[in-house]
Amino acid sequence: MPQPRVDIRHLAMLQAIAEGGNLTRASERLFVTQSALSHQLKGLESAYGVELVERESRPLRFTPAGQRLLRLAQSVLPQVADAERDIARLLEGRAGTLRVAVECHTCFDWLMPAMDAFRPRWPEVELDIVSGFTTDPVPMLLKDQADFAVIHDESAPRRGVVFEPLFEYETVALVARDHRLAGRARLEARDFAQETLITYPVEDDKLDVMRHVLLPAGVQPRAKRQVELTVAILQLVASGRGIAALPAWRVAPYLDRGYVLAKPIGRKGLRCALFGATTTHLAESAYIQEFIELIRGVGAEFAA
Fold first, then answer.
1. DSSP class of 187
2. pLDDT tens digits, 120-167
3. Secondary structure (3-state) at 43
4. How many Cβ atoms sit within 10 Å of the Cβ of residue 197?
5. Which of 16, 56, 152, 189 is the most exposed place for a label (fewest CB within 10 A)?
6. What are the DSSP E strand ranges found in 28-147?
7. Residues with Cβ < 8 Å from 135, sequence gap 6 or more?
8. DSSP characters over 217-235
């Protein structure tokens, strides 16, 4: 019998290309390098002896052969996911808890849609958010006060805790339309030295711009002003009381209305990452793994 030329890994690759529109975004969704994904695609094309995507198109378009395999992926992958959930329920029982603790003020924009998508898939799992914002939710996992934590950057290894990458995003600087820095193409660390930095009420090492840009450069803003609400931060920026640095997804509606201006931070922009953390004994749980995949999918849309 001839050996099959397509497997689940190939189908997941084709679906990621369709959703991402190019190999770069597809590789980010699958957490592989673009080179590895390109090699995998070429291998599948070689096995069939036909091109599956039109590489010169933007976004990538599928050839007729690629479209046929994509339809197969769209049909088979949901069935595989359903079967894996059913098997997991048989093995794990039909009950569980998923108490989520968050370290970031802006996580709820994408976290709530991920939770909404999770509930109908795992109705037996008690899903809840641990009340209150905490600057270090990882110890809550070890104390059985939470089952899953969302954190900025992967922290130092801790016994009994597993970290999983969720998604990357860009943090941008925000200035008023008539600010002295409004004409700059981008901001550098030194540009913050004469400014009031408006932030959430957290420590410096929990703020992207401080942790990744200002502290490594030995720069401190002239002053800091801490505010609980994002809309209050934006109002203060718009009125010229200072500048801020927030995730691009969080401020997109205000940028569309021209309320404030966004500037990249540094030559390549300030790219940051979110991680999920859970305990070792829960890390392989099917519902934890699916929750992570849902977050990655929703997060990729917000960060695009």
1. B
2. 988 888 899 987 667 788 899 999 999 999 988 766 678 899 999 999
3. helix
4. 22
5. 56
6. 53-54, 61-62, 96-102, 125-129
7. 103, 202, 203, 206
8. HT---SEEEE-S-HHHHHH
